[in-house]
């Protein structure tokens, strides 16, 4: 792998070839070498690894994820957390992974392209252009580095305000259209375990922006006939046919008249949905059915009507993927896990209220699933 080792303490970096299969094995290797188990998760010597796998740049779909490996400030353990789509633009810099150590004297923004890496000091701006939190900071960075973004077709990974003051800050990446507008649906978070807090509080890292023209790492991933051969040998069907068949739930399931995790899970799990901080396990079945009937009417139906019946508001994560699993309701990307955590799980049955809660947590750059399952009741009082 082609790895950029960035020391934010000294402001120096070097790019080296490292023998590792992917970001997780690279993460294990550098953490072992740094003996990070001896360190506090916020110790600047504890590396933050952000990288992509070797299948990027070819005909395979769903492989353009960015994976962070870090000591989790929440659990203390070595943790990995991934976000969809962001590597589709990040691969252009020709760097497979970033290993960040050291702590910048002021919040740092790393800009990476095929021409090299620069480190700038930028105070994060979380209110800008009518936007807030990670959305505002992303737009601010675009306006500030417009030439870099447009020349390199770049994408930013940022931390939000929550990363500087809590232990469960996420790494957030909102893709931009060619005109510099925030792209609908293509907002991705690597959130579990607090990688954003590790970046912000351990290294003073506010953002990495990367892009360029580099593409496939291995020519084999460009060869659709070879890919078909491998998939047919295992699954008896060509690659795209298999992909379409296995992703029906995420695109649109005609048998259910809905799609995406949010659309399908409510219909599928019904009275098995966990409610009220899991206390629903003590309710009898009739009571759980009464609750799920209310949830389907107040929570699921408004989403389904707009996203599937009135319009086809489906998008991808930033890589050109036919699954378009990102279902967008009035501009807000809706997934089952964060909406359930900030919705029925904490007793919020009205979809519109849950949208406000998830939007607030997302803008703060926090983990909405974590916030709902641990802190949801406290946040609910703020809206
Ligand atoms: S659009 Fe959805 S299914 Fe397709 S690659 Fe992105 S996250 Fe995966």
Protein model, in words:
The structure is a single chain. 49% of the residues are buried. The chain is globular and about 60 Å long. The strands form four sheets. A six-stranded mixed beta sheet has the order 2-1-6-3-4-5. A six-stranded mixed beta sheet has the order 8-7-14-11-12-13. The chain has two domains: 2-210, Aldehyde Ferredoxin Oxidoreductase,  A, domain 1; 247-380, no CATH class. The chain has 383 residues and is of the alpha+beta class. The N and C termini lie far apart (46 Å). It contains 14 helices and 17 strands. Iron/sulfur cluster binds at residues 61-62, 84-85, 250, 316-317, 319, 321, 323-326.
Percent helix, as a range, is 25-40%
In total, the number of domains comes to 2
Report the C-alpha radius of gyration, rounded: 21 Å
Distinct ligands, ions and cofactors found in the model:
iron/sulfur cluster
- Strand % is 15-25%
Shape, per Cα inertia axes? globular
Query: What's the CATH architecture name of the largest domain?
Result: 4-Layer Sandwich
**How many helical elements?**
14
Strand arrangement in the largest pleated sheet:
2-1-6-3-4-5
- What is the CATH topology descriptor of the largest domain? Aldehyde Ferredoxin Oxidoreductase,  A, domain 1
Q: Report the end-to-end length measured between terminal Cα atoms.
A: 46 Å
Overall pLDDT, averaged? 95
